[in-house]
TrEMBL record:
Keyword Chloroplast: no
Domain Glucose-methanol-choline oxidoreductase C-terminal: 405-517
Domain Glucose-methanol-choline oxidoreductase N-terminal, chain residue ranges per copy: 211-315
Keywords annotated in UniProt: FAD, Flavoprotein, Oxidoreductase
Superkingdom of the organism of origin: Bacteria
Family: Belongs to the GMC oxidoreductase family.
The protein's name in its UniProt record: GMC family oxidoreductase
The species this protein was found in: Fibrella forsythiae
Coiled-coil parts of chain: none
InterPro entries with a match to the protein in the record: FAD/NAD-bd_sf, GMC_OxRdtase_N, GMC_OxRtase_C
């Protein structure tokens, strides 16, 4: 068995030996793993992060080429089943030191309090076991300041803010200006969106000064200048500055446990070799597909039978149109404008669906656009060529809406093996009546907006985004995998922090809330450890 030795003066920060028993191992370095890694390191704990993906230097290793940046996505095959099979790869999740934030679009809206209470409000899904004002808002405040979120001075929806965004909003790109025009015509309120990308230079603890966004519109292919607050240039840099070690290319496969059921060692593969890292606690932050997969592979933390169940994916219909104006959809921060007027679109209880959705303008790069054009409309040959010749005149709006958990949507291990000889995950997804009604409502609203803005050749791209909920948190081990602090009901030194713990999908983009729960889990762990 190969071993790694410790080193206190490595250029990559401190390193630990695989003969040391570290205080905690964090598996995965995305939105769920990175903030808590930093928090634990700041508290003086000896922490090692194991990350399946590579470590890249955005300044030297990123290309201004969508296809060359494909390494940012989790491209291992996942089997997709059900009547509305989910698209994986670039539609779903990332890999590398920074996880999916390396390619995320940087939208960081806050959830609203009623997002956490769908069961109370509508009698569906599950309420969250945490209090919005006490358990979430303080972390939103902290994270927005730390990341340098750019956002509006006043925001028309949700509770009054106790703290302003640290930076003013980024400029509206072509799609945002057109959506603003269409919404104004229809009386739908809009606002510049909150984005975790810098509208001005910003000092980042652990990093130094980060440069302002240059409006390259390349967020989904990675930000080469560090203006976007992906985890590599924010929480992971802070974690390293406080002594955390991050091991890239390290794929965790299994665990050793003691007679009390506590995890004693995390076992992982790096460069074809198997390593073992002894530890006192484990934070599993591998995302809503790999986290349940790893637990199912090891028969771990599943006395509730809920690992892999309650799978949700945001309802994410897009409506595209062509305009006489020169839109240049590749320019500017992709998500410039937002409306939450459809958060609860019905003024009485006779709603067509439970929950709600937000509307966002979308910029798009050419390879992404052509793939969606083919999948959404089936265009090919000359017709596709003609459509693409109008690329500079296209603009899109999408929704992000609640999705309910159903028995028929879940993740399981298949009989097919991946390159490591491990069973591939199979994910079942079929929209229920709630999602169909929400899509129909949103389809009508977005087409009206684009008609008011002067769009031609309008077309729809039905989609679902972000896998959520596969290890949900709750009050009881009967129906949940972890408690309100992210701690496993079954394995006392195992915590989960990622998209998988959400009890309901939220009608907003998830990353800010994942980070909030991540810091909260770290704080609860530190309090309990004394
Ligand atoms: C194109 C796109 C755009 C998006 N834009 C936005 C947006 O604008 N705003 C927003 O809020 N959300 C956005 N999202 C969603 C958001 O990025 C994710 O929901 C969020 O980052 C997920 O965080 P996570 O911690 O759950 O998982 P991840 O960030 O995916 O982190 C999981 C990490 O674990 C690693 N890992 C997995 N298995 C193992 C293993 N066995 N061993 C070791 N490491 C492992 C992975 O390599 C990965 O780095 C977007 C998603 C996509 C696909
Ligand atoms: S628009 Fe460009 S510079 Fe700005 S955050 Fe996105 S990738 Fe970075």
């Amino acid at each position: 068995m190969p071993t790694l030795s410790s080193n206190e003066t490595s250029s990559q920060g401190r390193t630990y030996s695989t003969n040391d028993t570290v205080d905690a191992v964090v598996i995965g370095t995305g939105a769920g793993g990175a903030p808590l890694l930093a928090r634990l390191a700041q508290a003086g704990l000896r922490v090692v992060a194991l990350e399946a993906g590579p470590e890249k230097n955005p300044k030297t290793d990123y290309a201004t080429d969508e296809r060359a940046q494909n390494f940012l996505f989790w491209n291992d095959e996942r089997l997709s089943a059900g009547q509305d099979p989910l698209a994986f790869g670039s539609n779903n999740s990332g890999t590398g030191v920074g996880g999916s934030t390396l390619h995320f679009t940087a939208y960081t809206p806050r959830a609203q309090p009623d997002d956490l209470r769908l069961q109370t409000e509508f009698g569906v899904a599950a309420d969250w076991p945490v209090d919005f004002n006490e358990d979430i808002v303080p972390y939103y405040n902290e994270i927005e300041q730390f990341l340098g979120v750019s956002g509006p001075a006043s925001y028309p929806w949700g509770p009054a803010r106790t703290q302003s965004y640290p930076l003013p909003p980024l400029p509206l790109n072509g799609a945002a200006q057109l959506m603003q025009r269409g919404c104004a015509d229809l009386g739908i309120r809009t606002s510049p969106a909150a984005n975790a990308a810098l509208s001005g230079r910003y000092f980042q603890p652990g990093v130094g000064w980060r440069e302002a966004c240059t409006n390259r519109g390349f967020c989904q292919a990675g930000c080469s200048i560090g203006a976007k607050a992906s985890m590599d240039v924010t929480y992971l840099a802070l974690a390293r500055a406080h002594g955390a070690e991050i091991r890239p290319d390290s794929f965790v496969t299994s665990f050793d446990r003691d007679t009390q059921g506590r995890i004693t060692t995390v076992i992982y593969i790096r460069d074809g070799q198997t390593y073992r890292q002894p530890c006192k606690a484990v934070f599993l932050c591998a995302g809503a597909v790999e986290t349940p997969r790893l637990l199912l592979l090891n028969g771990l933390a599943n006395s509730s039978g809920q690992v892999g169940r309650n799978l949700m994916a945001h309802t994410g219909l897009q409506i595209w149109g062509e305009f006489d104006e020169d839109v240049r959809p590749y320019k500017g921060i992709p998500g410039g404008l937002i409306s939450e007027d459809m958060h609860r679109p019905f003024s009485n209880k006779s709603a067509d669906f439970a929950g709600g959705y937000l509307l966002q303008s979308i910029g798009v790069m050419p390879v992404t656009y052509v793939k969606q054009r083919v999948r959404g409309t089936g265009l090919w040959g000359q017709a596709l060529h003609d459509a693409m010749s109008r690329y500079n005149h296209v603009a899109g709006i999408n929704i992000l809406g609640d999705c309910l958990p159903y028995d028929h949507n879940y993740l399981e291990l298949s009989d097919e093996k991946d390159v490591r000889g491990l069973p591939k995950p199979r994910v079942y997804f079929t929209n229920g009546e709630n999602e169909k009604q929400m899509n129909a409502h949103a389809d009508r609203i977005m087409r009206e907006i684009w008609a008011a803005a002067g769009a031609k050749n309008v077309w729809a791209f039905p989609r679902s985004a972000h896998v959520i909920g596969t290890c949900r948190m709750g009050h009881s081990p009967d129906d949940s995998v972890v408690d309100a602090n992210g701690r496993s009901f079954d394995v006392p030194n195992l915590y989960i922090s990622d998209n998988s713990t959400f009890p309901s999908a939220l009608s907003v983009n998830p990353a800010l809330t994942i980070m909030a729960l991540s810091l909260r889990t770290a704080d609860k762990f530190l309090q309990q450890a004394g």
